Amino acid sequence: MANAASGMAVHDECKLKFLELKAKRIHRFIVFKIEEKQKQVIVEKLAENVPKSRIFFIAWSPDTSRIRSKMIYASSKDRFKRELDGIQVELQATDPTEMGLDVFKSRAN
Fold first, then answer.
1. Full pLDDT tens readout for the chain, 109 residues
2. Is residue 69 part of a domain?
3. Does residue 4 lie in a domain region?
4. Class of residue 32 by CB neighbours under 10 A (exposed 0-12, middle 13-18, buried 19+)
5. Which CATH number characterizes residue 55's domain?
6. How many structural domains are present in the chain?
């Protein structure tokens, strides 16, 4: 069972949906979520039928999060990211201003 030191397990659906995004280009974005009770990363939301050109990995961890949640997130992020081969741009954000359209445009080039 995964814990805060080793990170959360990654549900198979996460890898499947990421492969669909990468290979078939049928998703515009995927929101993954750490489900603490299930001790794994799951798919929370999809946006379909929109072609994409770059794959961004956005690590969202607001400053207002609980310390325990931040620890679980930090230990799970790298393990999860290794499961998703093909990420082209990574952003770490703690505030919405760090994910503005101007940030995406500058990082996409």
1. 344 445 678 889 998 988 888 887 778 888 898 888 888 888 888 887 666 677 888 888 888 989 988 888 888 888 888 888 888 888 888 998 888 888 888 887 7
2. yes
3. no
4. buried
5. 3.40.20.10
6. 1
Q: What's the predicted TM-score (pTM) here?
A: 0.70
Q: Output the average pLDDT for the chain.
A: 82
Predicted pLDDT of residue 1? 38
DSSP letters along 42-87, please? EEEEEEES---S--EEEEE--TTS-HHHHHHHHHHHHHHHHHSTT-
CA distance 31 to 9: 16
Say which residue the tokens 């979520």 belong to. 33
How many angstroms separate the CA atoms of 102 and 62, rounded? 20
**What is the DSSP-derived secondary structure letter of residue 88?**
-
Q: State the Cα–Cα distance between residues 79 and 57, nearest whole angstrom.
A: 13
Maximum distance among all Cα pairs of the chain, rounded to whole angstroms: 40
Full domain range(s) for residue 87:
9-108
